[in-house]
Amino acid sequence: MNPEDVERVIESELEGAKATVRRARGEHDDDHLAATVVSPTFEGEALVAQHQQVYDALGERMTTDIHAVELSTYTPAEYEEQK
Question: Which has the least CB within 10 A, 3, 20, 75, 81?
């Protein structure tokens, strides 16, 4: 899957999410990606639960189209603080 397709899947599956996906640095395989996902659904959730929401959104694609995803997840407020 290309990064734009992965962005669309995440954004369509997680309410209010904004995803930015790119090829992982140093990786030459098309199936290694890095994603930054901002979503209000992460509010009050532990980091592991946030990542699980993204993996759930990607579903079967994690075993068929994507080998690995390096995730950075934020609530909208956390993301604004990072800027």
Answer: 81
